[in-house]
Amino acid sequence: MKIQILISEGCISCSKIEKMFDELDVDYELIDISKNPKFLEKFPIFVAPGVVIDDKLAFTGVPKMRELIEKIK
Question: How would DSSP label each residue in 46-65?
Fold first, then answer.
């Protein structure tokens, strides 16, 4: 499973989602959308963070832990 988190600099919600994945001991890649705008073309998110699982946008914003677990397990 490939997980990418689309973040923006200084985003408090982005830090929250990182901590959630860390608590679940799941590997992920951080993508700063200001430095990689091509990701916004592919995944047009209006709110950071965006969570991409296996090349599909799964969440925008911070999901509930239960929802996150359902998607990754």
Answer: SSS-EEEETTEEEEESPPPH
